[in-house]
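Need tokens for this chain, all 478 residues.
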Amino acid sequence: MRRQSGVSVVDRYAVPAAGVATLAVLAVVFYYPVGTVFAAALGPDNPVVAVLTSEFYMGAAHGVFAHPLSVPGDVAAWAHATDVRVGWSGWLPAITVVHPGVSLGLVGFTAYQAVLSTVASVALGLPGAYVLARFEFPGRRTLRSLTILPFVLPSIMVVVGFVATFGQHGTVNDALAALGVGRVQFLYTLQIVVVAHAFYNAPLVTRMVASAWETVDASAVETARSLGASPLRAFRDVVVPQLVPAIAASALLTFVFTFMSFPIVLALGGLKLATVEVWLYARIQQFDYGTAAALATLETGLSLALMYVYLRYEGRQSAASAGGRSRPRKRLLGASGGREWALRLAGVGYAVVVAVVFVAPVVSMVVASVGGVTDPTLRWWRFLGTRQASGRTQPATAVWYSIVFGVGALAVALPMGVVVGAFSARGGRGRRLVDAALMAPVAVSGVVVGFGLLQSLAFGVDIAGTRVQLVGPLVVVC
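Here are the structure tokens for all 478 residues:
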């Protein structure tokens, strides 16, 4: 009875108190800063309207907001005059939308590159999901664990790896030069941005779809086969419908992440291929806070709406999940046959793509740090030691700050995460609302949160006559 009473006290008082404390911290470090951005965007100057009615930002869609009564005619004329051309740009296919005097605008281009990145991520991730879900082979668990690697690599490290691989003197161009093909300009193109986004997000597609593939009910497939369905028909009618929700959900998340992409686009595309996030950062640098707030508000509204759709899907999948009998995995290196050899050949081709997109950037970065293969040197490592001894910017100091910020953020986030998990496990009528509120930080970009902190707590706010300000490492941890 004592134990039950103790558990009851914890459940009734301690958990709700921890929940209130978690919401208080989120209110200070997230909701209030982001709220100040919304307030600035919807203030008296109304910069949101200025952005929505600007052809630079909205392209042909600006007419929907500038003169909505003439929209049908405008859209018809634009659609009639638009010419979509499919061709090749070097070694990659290129899709060009041509329209005299009218462009997609900044927001339209951001969505366009996000769609291309999503398609590339799904195309690269699905074969990996098929292999992990349907075959057994040595190192399968290790390979599945490595699909999380892009999520733990800093974005700037990925950029360095792609420069070392696809730069003018990178691994790929050196190989092309050795073959007599000549060097190709990969950097600062839309194609390299799409490939870099696929590096990050294809593993997400692989993990989500592989998990769904492993739970496909084997009895349903066997029933279809026993009724005379061919393997292709059984796959189309039984397996595909069970995979579509996972594919759609992973594509939705990929679109959200690539729409809000910042370091990859900034470093590999520059202002030439600026997206909303990059232009938002540029506006902050130019102290144009009104336009920055408007862009941040529109971007956040779209990402929150898409995240809500994803949460609805996740809730339905959890409610509809059934414990069917999963299909056994086959041996990847099994008996030889026509179909087996075709699968192996396709596997070799996919392995080459994986090596170029995923392995080469990491390996090239390491090789470039020692001067390359032809002229190895440790001069760059010695340079770090020299900077540590005499330079104003010392590498050890940067490493120390990284550790401090990481440990500080962990100390705040870990107990909050435990509380969030406890509330999510409880269920109840308000669970979906709580999940949506707690998932909001995932749907809001770091640039938007940083902008909100900058113009609120970092600059300082007056509360009851007292100036409250976050400075130094504390604001970074927040």
